Amino acid sequence: MASEKENRKSLALVRTQTMERAQGNALPIEFRTLSIHVTETHRSNKEGTTTAFGSKGKAKASKDEASETDFFATVDFHKLTPAEINLRFNSNEALGLEQVEAERRLRTNGPNTLVSRKPNYLKKILGYVFGGFCSVLWIGVITFFICWRPILQPDPIDTNLALAVLVIFVILLQASFSAFQDFSTAKVMSSILDMIPADCMVYRDGQLIKIPASTLVVGDRVHLSLGNKVPADLRLVQASNDTRFDRAVLTGESEAIEAATTATDDNFLESKNIAFMGTHIVQGSCVGIVILKGNDTLMGRINKLTTGRKEKPTIIQQEISRFVRIIVCLTVLLAGLIFVVWIAWLHQKYPDFMPTQVMLVTLMGCVVAFIPEGMPACVSLTLMMIARRMRSNNILPKALTTVETLGCVNVICSDKTGTLTENKMFVTNFAFLDNESTPEEARSRLEKETRPNSLPQSDDSASILALRQLQLATLLCNNAKFDNDTLNLPIAERKIHGDATDSALLRFGSQVADASLLEPCFERTQEIPFNSRNKWMMAVYQGSAQNPQTIKALFGSDMMSAGSIGNEKDSQLVLVKGAPDVLLPYCTSFLSAATNTPQNLSPEWIAELSRIQMAWSRRGQRVLMLCKGRFVPYFAKSATASSGSGLQEELTRQGLQELCIVGLVGIMDPPRPEIKDTIAACRGAGARFFMVTGDFGLTAAAIAQQIGLFSSEREPDTYEDIVDPTRKGYKINSEGNFDDLGEYELGRPQFREGSSLVLTGSDISRMSPGEWNLVCAYEEIVFARTSPEQKLKIVTEFQQRDGVVAVTGDGVNDAPALKAADVGVAVVSGSDVAIEAADLILLGGFDSIPVAMRLGRLVFQNLQKVIGYLLPAGSWSEIFPVLINTFLGTPLSLSSFLMIIICCFTDSFPCTALVMEQQEFNLLALPPRNAKKEHLITGRIYLQSYIFIGSVMTFFSNMLFYMYIKEYTGVSFKDLVFTFGSPNFENRFDGISDADFNNYYVNTGQCVTFVALVIMQWGNILSIRNRRLSILQADPIRPERRNLWLFAGMLAALLMAIFVTEVPWINQVMLTNPVPIKYWLLPIPCAVAVLLLDEIRKAAVRAFPRSLIAKLAW
């Protein structure tokens, strides 16, 4: 017993841990976890032991789950009788609550609303202000403030104060962009909050009135009918026989459950006499007492458990964080190097060159120089612009940072119904066991051989009567209804209330022949709705009092009609529908279309049934079987007297006895017209496309053939081929491996071209890690008959093998997998829960997926161009003046102020134009990026930006600085080397004082360097926009790659440079000076040189693709 109990605990924990991989607020996972824990608690209490829900290391989440588990394990509302419930909540069974009492309870206990956890705005703001590069920049702010009023120096240095203020402005600018990105990428309003309906019907003072759901109070008596959302947790006290609830929002199971008025399970969460907030009533009507409301409900408690979960960082967030870490480490390394040199050498040998405050400013200049402060803003703009392009292509990204992840996707798992198909089911074939036909042929026959607006007569031909029986079976064993407002439309255009299968049967039965006179001849007396346990639906009918002859003409003279008193020989008509494999064991005969009489169901006819089923399934049709039987109410009187459940048991016993097969119907959900091209495009982009569905394997495989998911005509492999590959002739090599089988390889699996596989949910549950390795090497896979938990497992298994997984779906049962995927893609027509769990919403056709993948790759490409543009001038060319000043003792050729202006302003304007770049070549022709090996910032980009372009710009900008100094002072570079702040110009050069040199000419020279870098960036941006193509092949003017924003960005950078160097008050405060016109013109040929040098490099790469230059090219 103890061992069995431990096994149950282990199973619960394993399932819980597996579900927790979903990372986030997937409601089905939370519900199932709580339910398992509650069940374990009940079992432990019965056995006198305690249950642990997690290890000691688990933190607050586990404690919260344990708390909720304790609560649901102790509630007993489901076990109380209706009278006890009314007594506990002081509610009148007939009148409900008094209005005065309801208002008092509302004032005392508050409204029926879900109070979401408020974000910690202080924490968010601190993250914006101190996160990323900002944490290092704040050190600069503090240092500049210290150096503004240095100790033992009476005169403040206003320039350092201005620098501190400027860096604070830069920090706030970065924080603003981060906040903007955060709020603009905030997800659509949580579907949890939308689940509370606006109004509901309650009994107050004996009157059924409509009130806002937020004003419900505990004890209210609520009336629910078809289509209503449950406004609070209710204990059902009345329910019609056909009442069913869709709990999929909680359980992830698409099948609705029947309601009950008595406890069906010790577990409160599993009992069917409890209706939970947010679930739907999809059939029937009921009355329930409010037992929990607002945050006390199951939905509210799950909401509290899930809102605290941290979101998994996206791939681009990880890449940007990696870049920040690299830059910060390099910055600290350089600053440390300068500090060590200052302590060990400069301060000892040249004490007047770099006093402490100057050293601190120099160190901060190093920090400011090496950090590309404009990058966060440019990244945000890039993501925002690509997201805007996605929206113009009917793709709504709910998070900007998810956009780039699409470019890495190498596995796409798609739901079938409603995603790959149109979710518009219709009957394509029907069959008696001795006759196959189509709806069009049946309609034609009935039009020819029957009189219009007439009821079936006993003298009609046998084939017509048989066809009428099948038509009635589809119409009567059915809970779908036409919308009254669309009854004037043709049948094919009418709106239907009901599930997709019932809707298809209703449309078929109505189109075969007019049934407006036929249906009123039948009166439903009993029903057993479809449920996940039985997997069939049963409806019981008798003839109507107005026309009792029709049922007798079609189904036999012993059929009862309304108002008649039956004896042991009178029976009612039983109609049952379900899957053939479910109902076949109960069948003993079939209806012959030729004779309209039952025939013995011999093995030969069973084989014929199987043949029809297999043939239709291979064409992608879902096969349903319709049967008829008899129910004798006379024999059910004793069961009726005992209890309602006894009647249902008797109905089930009689109704499934010796069933006669009326016929089979094949229902087709046609594929979306664009899906075949979409799959081909995704595969062309290097992403494998899999189907994950709850449908049967044969049907799913047939659909896969139709839409091109299976590219080969040969039979797909199955689980048996995974277990024993020799079944299909795979050979074992000398190392004991199968030569023909693909293998999982770290970072990038090796796929088998054209290899297809069909697995079922039962296969998935028994697969070992080694078998998963083989499965993950297949190119084409259909996962059939899968549950939400199994869909989640499929996603996690591929992720564990370096798959970047996109999941597409529209149903609530897809939500766990959508949430766990690297990119969840929902269809806009899907459920609220699926849309909430997804990262992208498809507003149009499924063909938007390849477009989204292309734009995701374009994001990555453009971000690399942005960074490649920012680093040469905004980092490399700025750090060298500091290093030359420190180690060679020459004047600083670029001030900290001008460094910041380059990073945050003059570079940012053209950089924004790079965001608008189109793809240079067909990005979908490339394989998906391997996120573990191919990073946003690589050694090749550093080589391009620092060693090549950065060095060229550093040389030209410093050359112009020293050229200006030589021209206007006569002091050459050689004269400045190793002067270390003491040039002693009065004794060496006529008419030049040290003060004039340092306070005017050096400041002007710094502006010359600044202008040179601004203009040389024009050449850099024209070269960086093309990785391989020449500017002659892809210029920014011709339509193919037109980007006139580049010139606008260049102009804006030029105007900023003029503003900084020409405005007098900036000259005074920030120590800048106007630049001679000559030094506005000299950088232009330098910019051309930058462009030409990179053009030469690209030409070498194109001409010699296997050369060392090509291998080092970014």
For the secondary structure, the number of strands is: 28
CATH architecture of the largest domain: Up-down Bundle
Low-confidence stretches: 1-26, 47-62, 187-197, 731-750
CATH fold-level assignment of the largest domain: Calcium-transporting ATPase, transmembrane domain
Q: What gap, in angstroms, lies between the N and C termini?
A: 65 Å
Radius of gyration: 38 Å
Task: Output the structural class.
Answer: alpha+beta
Number of domains: 4
* Mean pLDDT level: 81
Fourth-level CATH superfamily of the largest domain: Calcium-transporting ATPase, transmembrane domain
Count of helical stretches:
43
Shape: elongated
% residues in beta strands: 5-15%
The proportion of residues forming helix, as a percent range, comes to: 40-55%
Question: Would you state the CATH class of the largest domain?
Answer: Mainly Alpha
Q: Quick one: biggest sheet?
A: 9 strands, mixed
Structural overview:
With 1114 residues, the chain is of the alpha+beta class. It has four domains: 74-112 and 197-303, Calcium-transporting ATPase, cytoplasmic transduction domain A (Distorted Sandwich), CATH 2.70.150.10; 314-391 and 854-1112, Calcium-transporting ATPase, transmembrane domain; 397-421 and 671-726 and 747-844, Rossmann fold; 426-634 and 645-668, Calcium-transporting ATPase, cytoplasmic domain N. The chain is 49% helix and 13% strand. Strand 26 (805-809), helix 30 (815-820) and strand 27 (823-827) form a beta-alpha-beta unit. Helix 12 packs antiparallel against helix 13 and helix 17 (462-476) runs antiparallel to helix 18. The longest helix is centred in the C-terminal third of the chain and has 41 residues, at 848-888.
